Amino acid sequence: MSLAMSREDLMEYLRQIFPQVHRDFVVEALDEESIVMRLVVEDRHLRPGGTVSGPSMFGLADVSVYAMILARKGRQSLAVTTNSSLDFLRKPEGGKDMIAKCRLLKLGRSLAVGDVLIYSEWSDKPAARATMTYSLPPEGSAAAAFG
């Protein structure tokens, strides 16, 4: 299956729909099978002890799967998270950006499921693993036409 949006189109669309947080996330790489996203870690993403917070890693996983769905389905897709699971595997390195490697396990008519591994920048050991499920609006609905 081909992409409905390029990396540049996707970044611009994320800027439009998430103006409050678009600077936090960068699409590093995108192809038909996967997306690599960066969380630009700042002090507000850290918790006491200098490590990246769980909510920040959750946000990275959530945006990664959402962006992959958009890249495949296009701007008309107003997907919403319906289920998530996040396993913290090791302490992320504070002061380093977080990198998410995401792939879609399923992209159906009504559901999408994505798997995400999250790493501290330059580390080959994942700090977290997430599985996210999204509900997709029916094609032709007002929600599917958003964007």
From TrEMBL:
<keyword id="KW-0378">Hydrolase</keyword>
<feature type="domain" description="Thioesterase">
    <location>
        <begin position="49"/>
        <end position="121"/>
    </location>
</feature>
<dbReference type="GO" id="GO:0016289">
    <property type="term" value="F:acyl-CoA hydrolase activity"/>
</dbReference>
<protein>
    <submittedName>
        <fullName>Putative domain 1</fullName>
    </submittedName>
</protein>
<dbReference type="Pfam" id="PF03061">
    <property type="entry name" value="4HBT"/>
</dbReference>
<dbReference type="InterPro" id="IPR029069">
    <property type="entry name" value="HotDog_dom_sf"/>
</dbReference>
<dbReference type="InterPro" id="IPR006683">
    <property type="entry name" value="Thioestr_dom"/>
</dbReference>
<dbReference type="InterPro" id="IPR003736">
    <property type="entry name" value="PAAI_dom"/>
</dbReference>
